[in-house]
Amino acid sequence: MTLLMLAPRIxxxxxxxxxxxxxxxxxxxxxxxxxxxxxxxxxxxxxLYGGPLFADTAAGVLGVVPLxxxxxxxxxxxxxxxxxxxxxxxxxxxxxxxRPAFLKPPVDKLFPAxxxxxxxxxxxxxALDDDTLVLVSDVVAFAxxxxxxxxxxxxxxxxxxxxxxxLAVSAEVGPDVLAFAADxxxxxxxxxxxxxxxxxxxxxxxxxxxxxxxxxxxxxxxxPDQVLDVxxxxxxxxxxxxxxxxGYARPVPEVVR
Length: 257
Hints:
This protein is of the alpha+beta class. The protein has 6 helices and 14 strands. It has helices at 12-23, 52-62, 79-82, 91-94, 175-186, 224-234, and strands at 3-6, 27-30, 46-49, 64-66, 86-90, 101-104, 114-116, 133-137, 142-151, 154-163, 166-170, 193-201, 206-212, 235-237. Strand 9 (142-151) and strand 10 (154-163) form a beta hairpin. Helix 1 (12-23) crosses helix 6. The chain is globular, with a radius of gyration of 18 Å.
């Protein structure tokens, strides 16, 4: 029986995936601790849904390969898809920044993503290594932001999640969102399953917000069945990994108990 292992402290999306997976006949289980229960560790094929901490703990045990967008993916996009300057640098360099910027870790939530007046408030070397990657972006104002669950280069589910920086979830997504998404996905550089966030700026221009691993992303008002399809591919068995996705596999540490 196919297993879907979900992280503890499951969110609303996780609950939806749990229900949908069971309807499909999968054995969906929410872990009670940050580890795979011994009685499920050998069940194959397996998939997972949860944050990076859970993926690092569970993926190796389950024989799962979590796929994630490259840390510098934004910086590889054409300027017309970004509508702002974005660079990927080290934490040591970002601490020297002397201008306002939106700063965030590319994948793991090692520190809060927000606008900083400069780099002096970033975590010091006692908290995070100097070579930790940081995305540095010009400060822009998004009028509306949308989440897209992508499978094989096509949007499978979409939802608005913010208006003027505040949470505003809606399943209504206009054709302009999907048209811009098609341009973004045509640029490539993503695994076969991923989440891409896009938005419309206050000046009316469209821009990519970021890309994230589908196995760690909330679905907002996206169709849960479509989200499940993307999640299953984004964190699935190593034996089913397509050659084109090899370069997007998250390095999984060996867990010593």
